[in-house]
Amino acid sequence: MLKVWNTLHRELEEFKPIKAGEVGMYTCGPTVYNPVTLGNWRAFIFDDVLHRSLEFFGYQVKHVMNITDVGHLVGDGDEGEDKIEREAVRQGKTAQEIARHHEAAFREGMKRLHITEPNFMPRATEHIPEQIALIQQLEKKGATYRISDGIYFDTSKFLDYGKLSGQALDEKKAGTRVAVNPEKRHSSDFALWKFSYPNGRSFDSAQDASRRHMEWESPWGTGFPGWHIECSAMSVKYLGQPFDIHCGGVDHLAVHHENEIAQTEAASGKSLAHYWLHNEFLLVDGRRMGKSEGNAYTLDDVIARGFDPLAFRYYCLGTHYRQKMNFTWEGLEAAQNALNKLWEIARSIESSVSSIQYTQYPILNTFQSSLEDDLNTPQALAVMWEMLKSDLSDEEKRGALLKMDDVLGLHINDFFGKKIRVPIEVKKLAEERQKARQEKQWEKADELRKKIRDLGWEVEDQENGFEVRVLT
Ligand code: AMP
Ligand code: ZN
Q1: 257 touches ligand 1 (CB under 6 Å)
Q2: Class of domain 283-415 (CATH, top level)
Q3: Where are the alpha helices (DSSP H) in 321-410?
Q4: pLDDT per residue over 136-155, tens digit each?
Q5: Which of 40, 250, 315 has most ligand 1 atoms within 8 Å of its beta carbon, as the pocket-test mutant?
Q6: Residue 50 needs a FRET pair 20 to 30 A away by CA distance; which of 114, 249, 318, 396 works?
Q7: Which superfamily is assigned to 17-279 in CATH?
Q8: Which residue puts its alpha carbon closest to atom 9 of ligand 1?
Q9: Residue of the CA atom closest to atom 18 of ligand 1
Q10: Is residue 278 in contact with ligand 1, taking CB distance under 6 Å?
Q11: Quick one: pLDDT band at residue 30, thresholds 50, 70, 90?
Q12: Which ligand has the nearest atom to the CA of 65?
């Protein structure tokens, strides 16, 4: 039974999906204006481990991660420049060029870190009508108001405001440190639509020195969506409402996620997501990472220092996601050494057999229990090492390790089966066939066996799983 820490209720809860056997999950993706930092990667690796674990448990996962390519401003209080537009001016490029460049780099980084590609990665700029429609819904409910720089959400109209972070509206007001726009009714109110030019008028070359690269007409005037609205519009579009799991880093909890909840729930009267999972921060040498600190390291820094990006993945797995992780270069070196050792063992137990067994080894239950305990990856790694030290046969170790790697994503597959490598389609078909057999769908199972044969492989049933080998 999977248990997760649900930030919404501040407790460990049994995970119950809305639809049996399926999970819809949403991840706040990157703002594509600069290289993604190791801190951000920690968040995305955590999301990936969650995604892979859910599949390991047998769920069919629908994962959505947005790409923020407009509207994320420099200031926390809906003020300042748009991060992407600012970068475009600095580099003499268009905002689109900046956004696409960093999105491509992000996708490349995902591959290097073995992050499973989510089913949908929608861009904010390609969902402007959906965002406008949601603001119109809020307008109808009387939850918005207009000031000179945009349309704002009135947080006092949403009685539950603050439920995620457990802060009442008044506390939030008192505690706020961001510069407050004096036209806002409450400091916690936030922009739904920002005007490009004062009061929403159109560009006027006589009055405006420059014009935004990305702006749209709207019922309220020329402008662009606020940052929070994109996640509400796109999560619901692809996952329905409510959906199962929403994740992100703890820095998004008190403002961004609180605002996502407020605007979605105020518009529809229905809850947004049942479970909210937040990963803790990655610190560098005990300090917050930041450009001004000179420690906003990226994957390129990791590679430039001679490390494999997967050493960083391994490093992240060694800390529970709800614990702060202290990144040091020595720590990364230790992770690289452990990973090298793992790969070496994988090579050394590569045996002479011509088949691979996919069996429900008892050790996999222990591995699964660790993950079911709020995704305890340090524990799961410990189970893996114990298993490698145990007196299981090499064949069994190989089978169990391969299965564990479905969650860990540490490239173990590559060190096995140099001689025989099972193509992913064959493995998938064999798993499907096993499921069909469990459901006593014999005809389907036979058909799948044929398909596997057509690919040049033979599948054989075993007590708790199956074995595949090359057809001879
Ligand atoms: P952003 O591009 O700023 O929206 O961040 C992308 C993801 O990384 C979000 O889920 C953030 O909460 C998360 N994040 C940002 N900085 C860190 C950090 N230092 N450690 C862990 N997660 C972070
Ligand atoms: Zn978001």
Answers
A1: no
A2: mainly alpha
A3: 329-348, 362-372, 377-389, 394-408
A4: 999 999 999 999 999 999 99
A5: 40
A6: 396
A7: HUPs (3.40.50.620)
A8: 249
A9: 39
A10: no
A11: very high
A12: 2
